[in-house]
Amino acid sequence: MSSKKTPLVDAADIFAGRVLITVPHMDDAVLGCGGTLLQIEDKRDIHVVYCTRGDCPGFDRAQEARDALNAAGIPKENITFLTFPDWHLKAHRPALQAALSALITSIAPTRVLTPFRFDRHPDHITLGNVVRALAAASAVPIEVVEYFVYFTWRLLPEGDVRRHISPNYIVQVDTTAQAGPKRALLAHFKSQTEAPAPGQLRPALTEDYLDLLCADRESFVRHAEKTPSRALFTLPFPLIRLVHWLEPTLKVWKEKIKTARGGGGSM
Q1: Neighbour-count burial of 105, counting CB atoms closer than 10 A to its CB (0-12 exposed, 13-18 middle, 19+ buried)
Q2: What is the pLDDT of residue 266?
Q3: Under a CB-based contact definition with an 8 Å cutoff, are residues 170 and 146 in contact?
Q4: Which of 204, 239, 250 is nearest to 59 (CA)?
Q5: Which of 32, 10, 13, 11 is nearest to 21 (CA)?
Q6: 20 to 30 A Cα–Cα from 166, which one of 46, 58, 95, 241?
């Protein structure tokens, strides 16, 4: 996404101080902020926590994540795995909150990155809610920065939710020069680029989707920890809520129809 209205910042502005990246699934850190991460030379103060165990028969998703972060320059001692079950973070919210609270106390980050509060996966939403709650309750100031994974909303004008967030709360990092290296990091996630996604006939990360993700600038929501969600958007909030619910529902039905017909394609 490129927009004249969206402020452009340096990668160092996103990764200032001691940073903890909270990640719902193994590939999400690279998807959401891999290009920005690659611009940081000294990564000793960048920590990453993966919150689900990455169930995928035939693949070691934790090792995929280690390999990708090693290639990105993240020290191996800065990587934590919590191993909650995929798709069920909401059911494990108290335990997730306790584990992240202990980790935040240990690392003492000045900034925590977490998925955008309206990312379409329930694990992403739960994780973001937990992080914002912990930051709000912290006696030490913690800035929460939200990164995007599921930003393509086809039922919205221009098909991109980032275009409808107030410029008061969203910034971009120019990561176009990192398109190739980011693509190389994502190549470590063979479980997502080669194996069909559950209930689908194609991988979760198709070639077209990878092209879109890697060629685009990366965007982040900032200074919105205490901002009501409805105040983030330039479109009517009921429309945002409706599309947020409707698109995943339609996608599930579309995949069921394609699977029944034995067809492929992408949404």
Answers
A1: exposed
A2: 44
A3: no
A4: 204
A5: 32
A6: 46
Beta bridge partners of 84: 52
Query: Which CATH number characterizes residue 131's domain?
Result: 3.40.50.10320
Helix (H, G, I), strand (E, B) or coil at 236: coil
For residue 249, pLDDT over 90 is answered with no
Q: What percent of the chain has pLDDT over 90?
A: 82
CA distance 113 to 100: 13
Strands 170-173 and 218-221 come out as antiparallel
Note the pLDDT tens digit of each residue in 124-145: 999 999 999 999 999 999 999 9
Give the number of domains in the chain: 1
d(CA 206, CA 191): 12
Task: Give backbone dihedrals phi and psi of 225, rounded to 5 degrees, phi first.
Answer: -55, -40
The answer to the question of residue 125 being in a domain is: yes
Average the pLDDT over each of 34-48, 69-83, 211-225 and give the range with the smallest value.
Answer: 211-225
How far apart are alpha carbons 69 and 48 in whole angstroms? 9
| Its pTM surpasses 0.70 | yes
Q: Is 263's pLDDT higher than 80?
A: no
In a domain, 3, yes or no: no
Residues of the domain holding 96: 11-261
Distance between CA 29 and CA 61 in Å, rounded? 13
Q: Single out the residue of 238, 45, 223 nearest to residue 146, CA to CA.
A: 223
Sorted by sequence, the CB contacts under 8 Å of residue 137 that are 6+ apart come out as none
Q: What dihedral do alpha carbons 231, 161, 219, 124 form, nearest 10°?
A: 90
Please give the mean pLDDT across all residues of the chain.
93
For residue 267, being part of any structural domain is answered with no
